[in-house]
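Dear all,

This email documents one entry for the complex benchmark we are building for the journal club exercise. For each entry we list the sequence lines for every component of the assembly. Then comes the predicted three-dimensional structure of the complex as a token string, followed by one or two observations. Please use this as the template for your own entries, and keep the labels exactly as they appear.
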Amino acid sequence: MASAAQSRIKSISYAKYGYIFILPFFIVYCFFQLWPLIYTFILAFKGNQSGGDSWVGFQNFSDLLFSHPYNKSDLLSSNPETKAHARELMSIDVQHQDFVRCLKNTIVLWFGNFIPQIALSLSLAVWFTDAKLKIPATGFFKVIMYMPNIITAASIAVLFLQLCADTNYSAATLIGRSMGILKDGEFFNMTKNIPDVVWPPRIIVMFIQTWMWFGNTMIMLMSGIMGINPSLFEAASIDGASSGQTFVKITVPLLSPILVYTVITSMIGGLQMFDMPYLFTTSKEGQRIDNIETIAVYIYDKFHSGAIEPSYGYSGAASVVLFIITAVLGAIIFRLNRDEEEHRKKLQRKALIKQQKSKNKEFGGLSI
Amino acid sequence: MSKMKATYGDAQDNYTRSLKIKSGILFVWCIILTIVCLLPIYVLIINATRSHNEIISMTGVGTLFAPSSHLSENIKNLSTKTSEDFSMMIGYKNSLTITVCSTFLTVFFSAMTAYGIRVYDFKLKDAAYTAILLVMMVPVQVTSAGFVKFMINLHLTNSFIPLILPAVAAPSVVYFMVSYLKSSFSQSIVEAARIDGCSEFRIFLQIAIPMMKPAIAVQAIFAFIASWNNFYTPNMILIDPNKGGTTNLRTLPMMLGILQASQKTADYGMIYTCIALGIIPIIIVYILLSKFIIAGVALGGVKE
């Protein structure tokens, strides 16, 4: 009897509770994230504006990714057919140029904020963790340097717009004039959409992004450096290695997985840059500054119903391109983060099970 | 740090003069960076104490740093000069509603999912965990076009539901909590509770959740900050935030956007005060909880 009761207790399966516990997550995920993702992919193959319901195949992708050359003289042609055709090509070509411009802006802005950011945070992380240097108050510095990261990006955008505005009383003008860079009546055109002024608005956005993120990157790198076996640094110091040699020969190689992780998460974050470029508008009509408009702003502007006619097709196609870039970057992280040891064991286990199964078959499915 | 200290703690002899100089130079450099970090916030707070006329008549750099005395006047203006679109108090209320609800949903359901994956053995367990890891990296922007169209089809735009309910599924928080459970939750506790006749949900609510408190606290802080600062999702879901003129659904960051759009006519003192009031609560929370936040970042608890 006892053994029967025991086996009954053992046979109670708790598996159903596992499913119950994870069910809410997956229901909500599928409803609010997975289906919208699939729906975005569907939209990418559908038409724009009034033709929103018809399938157009890869039309949106080819519109965005390839240029559509047309003769400017055709626009003034007397033949209505030629004229209409040229107009159509022109409107498609505008889409292509916008998309490429936004993609280029995103990449430029990312590089411009990432290089100073990684230089600053890596050097600070190395100095803060260097036991010989003993920089005082590192805890205080960490807290202050991380602080910009928690402040609402929208507030920061509005604040910097105020500080850098082209008025007689903005902080940038006051400082520029006191340093003699600006004469009376001159301004930095940092927040204006002027085609010739390429870099000033970009530099502001890069500065803000660096300012917001270097503390975060620094803390992540610090935790990485502290994970390195301290006896390695000790050995290097006993052998008389200079701090430069220690950095190149020990810190960087051992930190490389975390460095790659930081680079890629920052890239994915950079692809999503939205608040800053979106709020840096020049007027009430919401005209974007061309040289800082990013791919996220492009996607938003295309589907936002405040737009004259929402173009879900282009928005979807741009999203798919963004998704593919992110997926490639994510795959790299996934591969790096995989525990090599565990992976090998898993493969071995699978091979064993396979072997077992084929053996069982030999004996007519009876397990012996 | 403590590990390094133990190794190097008494190595005073190595601390030579050149090292001292280097350390001093780096200290000065860190102070410069600290000033760069704080300067915009300082100027913001100083300008919040000025009146409009004081701001537009500034001429020298010196005046940039001296506080004035119009703060209470600006706050009064902010609370009285409201319009159909702009109201600081309503912005606070909306932001707080969304943030509190979504933070609660995020931490509770993430803890539940992590517990389910960690404690129970079931067929799809590995598949579920791999799926969570895979979707961790998908950026919001990629799904947003479909999300908005779907919500329009369901007539859910201009409501808080699409801003709050999706918080139930937060893959990166689940990932963090699974790693936490792996390191500090033992299966034998669950078995002991079962023998004592405790039901599965009670084990989770009364034993697992209290044991997961540190992880929940860290993730709650990050979820709160992320939701409070979120501008993208509310801006795209709340298509007609006035709902035909009856209410105002705008969140605090959206109010700032309104203020920014109307800056040509507005009172500058008011703009600065509004920004300051928007970020000061979060700075106070940050300073109080900075220890946990820094530790959380070091654990890779936030997604960039």
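Observations: The two ends of chain A are 27 Å apart (CA to CA). Chain A touches chain B through 116 residues (CB under 8 Å).
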